[in-house]
Amino acid sequence: SRWCLITSPKLYSSVYDPNEKTFEKLLIANRGEIACRVIKTCKKMGIKTVAIHSDVDANAVHVKMADESVCVGPAPTSKSYLNMDAIMEVIRKTRAQAVSLNVSICCSFLSSLSLQASEGVTFIGPDTHAIQAMGDKIESKLLAKNAKVNTIPGFDGVVKDADEAVRIAREIGYPVMIKASAGGGGKGMRIAWDDEETREGFRFSSQEAASSFGDDRLLIEKFIDNPRHIEIQVLGLLFQVLADKHGNALWLNERECSIQRRNQKVVEEAPSTFLDPETRRAMGEQAVALAKAVKYSSAGTVEFLVDSSKNFYFLEMNTRLQVEHPVTECITGLDLVQEMIRVAKGYPLRHKQADIPINGWAVECRVYAEDPYKSFGLPSIGRLSQYQEPLHVPNVRVDSGIQQGSDISIYYDPMISKLITYGSNRAEALKRMEEALDNYVIRGVAHNISLLREVIIHPRFVQGDISTKFLPEVYPDGFKGHKLTDLERRELLAIAVSLYVAEQLRSQRFLGAPRIPIAKSKRSSWDLSVRLGDGIYPVAVSKDGSSFAVEVDGMKLNVTSEWNLASPLLSVSIDGTRRTIQRISRNASGETSIQFLGTVYKLQILTKVAAELSKFMPEKAAEDTSSILRSPMPGTVVAVSVKPGDMVSEGQEICVIEAMKMQNSMIAAKTGKV
């Protein structure tokens, strides 16, 4: 199994009762890692699965895992995974008894699902009323107020147009948060600090909301500056006896989700370093009160913003299985998918609140196909030419929906996987995560491993001093990768030249024998020149068995490894310090790229003679791109704001690019004529 739940009972320890009958066949109206996650539990419960897919997802992992699969349309989600008529037809055609839906749900589908209920089809999740109430941020906020749940100050109605948005924002007081009423996942959200940003935010948020959720309604509320984002997992039971409804509800502790970019979570953990038992209990009780107020009957998540004084405010309730649910499973031992299926079938909860533990610590990193050096992560597309998950590292779980050869396209979220590590305490879980990130092999697309690794080792994060503004505060000029210390620079140079020499020695041999029997005796020392960044460093290397003695900056380092040059991962010891590195690329001119401490460094290794001659090589002139508007990411042009002959000024919008359901305004870099 590519999923490590079987390696440790602490990661995942649910008991499946074969005598507890649920459903024979379940349709999964989703894709990617979450669809694979549901299929895994269904297999353990003996439930057959039906996967739906778009035409570009025909060879996706979730399609291969399912017992049956049906194509529901072309690539755009509105024509496939949100194609309600096609999905309902698949339910009838396959005779599925239940349907699991984790995408944004529109009211028309809920109505169709209600009709299907009379035909014996069960929805894995809460009932229609709860989804409509909690899926609508405007209605959910009003319900939360009535349930005595703390809420963020703001306007509780629908914002009609940009002018009204400006008026409301002024009344609330800047800064404000503009968000889609039916939204989630950071889409359809904008922070506005003045009237101009409010108008622009209203425009883009409404367009993103219409594109992603089929609902362009917006609300505005006060932006809580520098908060923590903490959410409570709830599990509710609703069963019907005559005309009454008797519900039980549990809160399954909190998740810390403050590390974000563009209002999307990047690193999550459970529990939170910030909460004390009293605050945790108060937040949990309010979360349960809200769940009971809407007669909630499934797994769901209540999200809060918490200020520095531990005052907390209701943000929203997600009526689905959250991306970050694995950290809750790790510390409680519950299988949330199994519990959702059991509740949907009508079984009572097997646990009381006192039974819910906090065992150890779990951390989740969202691994994305993104370039972290551009706005902390702009989407990357391509094919995974090489892919290897770090499941050989103890206490590691990887939830993914891709494999080697999979395509990352512009049509869907660029998530590669969710990487989860578990430990008896936070320090152990973070150390495991550091090791897992170093051992994660991803080739063919840009990825955010370097950013994730830097976050989890940063002193502020290690101390628990975090907020939703962590990334812009720690990296005010943008993320630049790991900054090498002098010792780390020497280690990287020593590893690079040792790898270079090991390769030179290998090229002299063929099937274990010298290529030319009359060749001179093997060399034992090399004088090299290495370019790293703006520096050029002379390095002396000598071989001693399987080790290399390297002299850098007048200091000697001993480098030892098995030197398996065919492996994507290379474990190297430098004076007893163990490092896992990856050589990403190399060419005949001595240029090589090495992933070291999470960041990819470009080096050029030359012999002493070649280095002296290289100064005569002409340098290629840099291209002048100041008159060109080049999209920083792949996507679709959804609007063009100018035409040939127009005069534009610096900062003026030229066009709008939509990538992975997010809209981005492309602006002119200087004043000129189109």
Q: Could you name the CATH class of the largest domain?
A: Alpha Beta
Radius of gyration: 27 Å
CATH architecture of the largest domain: 2-Layer Sandwich
C-alpha geometry: globular
User: What's the number of domains?
Assistant: 6
Query: What share of residues is helical?
Result: 25-40%
Structural class: alpha+beta
Task: Give me the CATH superfamily of the largest domain.
Answer: ATP-grasp fold, B domain
As residue ranges, the low-confidence spans are: 1-13, 103-108, 236-246
The main sheet comes to: 8 strands, antiparallel
Number of strands: 38
What distance separates the N and C termini? Answer: 55 Å
Number of helices: 17
Average of per-residue pLDDT values: 85
- The strands making up the biggest β-sheet line up spatially as 14-13-10-11-12-15-22-20
CATH domain fold name of the largest domain = D-amino Acid Aminotransferase, Chain A, domain 1
How much of the polypeptide forms β-strand, as a percent range? 25-35%
Domain Biotin carboxylation: 22-476
Keywords: ATP-binding, Biotin, Ligase, Lipid degradation, Lipid metabolism, Magnesium, Manganese, Metal-binding, Nucleotide-binding, Transit peptide
GO molecular function: ATP binding; metal ion binding; propionyl-CoA carboxylase activity
Catalytic activity: butanoyl-CoA + hydrogencarbonate + ATP = (2S)-ethylmalonyl-CoA + ADP + phosphate + H(+); propanoyl-CoA + hydrogencarbonate + ATP = (S)-methylmalonyl-CoA + ADP + phosphate + H(+)
